[in-house]
Write a structure and sequence with these properties.
The chain is built from 8 helices and 10 strands. The protein is an alpha+beta fold and 249 residues long. It has 2 domains: 19-82, Winged helix-like DNA-binding domain superfamily/Winged helix DNA-binding domain (Arc Repressor Mutant, subunit A), CATH 1.10.10.10; 87-243, Chorismate lyase. A 6-stranded antiparallel beta sheet has the order 4-5-6-9-8-7. Strands 1-2 form a two-stranded antiparallel ribbon. Strands 3-10 form a two-stranded parallel sheet. It is elongated, with a radius of gyration of 21 Å. The termini are far apart.
């Protein structure tokens, strides 16, 4: 039919992959290749089943996975739409931003905005359990997903625990990997606090948003077996980053 995308690859029952996985990949390809643009309402379930040659149960499995991956959104009473580039973090382990994006099938990126050694303020010192005025490495980084800005993260680490980090900062892509390989630091737990905030004047240009746009403000203190080693403050674009949780009785 005329509304069938030219690049659609129909699932093949002779292939070893489950039909739901083939259907998910077929629809994902339409989005990735731009045949289904952000904001587009995709065909209804009956039409998709016809196009893909699969059952409704199989289709819903594929659609649910794409929705959880942040590629589709369902609006009750309206239909299903292609999302803009929103990163959806579901059940989350203690991982770096790089690993989290790769888990979501998103290409991670980092742009170093600032690296400096500063004296710990009272807030930083309390978070890292060090003395006020102690030397701290501060990294300010723009975090990217598929080349688009997602957030700005300002990270503080005790200089005594991360020798060489300041000098290597411009080459660090995954901070946690660098810490493991060069400082023997392996995170074991973290505490995070999410607040509703707004994009500050100093962040607006890099985040490509107007000043005052609603955003997530995230504070994170990360620990290894010894002590807290990281205090990070992030501003995340609310239109490109979500947290979803599944609650159990």
């Amino acid at each position: 039919m005329s509304d069938e995308p030219a690049g659609l690859v129909r699932p093949d029952r002779r292939r070893p992959e489950p039909l739901w996985h083939q259907a998910e990949m077929a629809l994902r390809d339409l989005i990735d290749q731009g045949e289904w643009a952000p904001g587009l309402q995709i065909p209804n379930e009956d039409r998709l089943c016809e196009m893909l040659g699969i059952s409704r149960i199989t289709l819903r499995h594929a659609l649910r996975n794409l929705e959880e991956a942040g590629m589709l959104r369902r609006e009750h009473g309206r239909g299903t739409f292609v999302r803009s580039a929103t990163m959806v973090a579901g059940v989350r382990g203690l991982t770096s931003f790089t690993d989290e994006m790769q888990t979501l099938a998103v290409s991670p990126g980092t742009r170093l905005l600032l690296a400096q050694v500063i004296s710990a303020t009272r807030e930083i010192a309390e978070a890292l359990e060090i003395a006020e005025g102690d030397s701290v490495v501060q990294l300010r980084r723009l975090r990217l997903g598929n080349g688009q800005p997602i957030g700005i993260q300002t990270t503080h680490l005790p200089s005594a625990r991360v020798p060489g980090l300041f000098e290597a900062a411009s080459d660090v892509t995954s901070l946690y990997r660098w810490l493991k390989d060069n400082a023997g630091i392996v995170p074991v737990k973290a505490k995070e606090v999410y607040r509703v905030g707004a994009v500050a004047a100093g962040d607006a240009s890099d985040l490509e948003l107007p000043v005052g746009t609603p955003a997530f403000e995230v504070e994170r203190i990360t620990f290894d077996q010894r002590s807290p080693f990281e205090f990070a403050v992030s501003t995340m674009r609310a239109d490109r980053y979500e947290i979803r949780s599944t609650l159990y009785v």
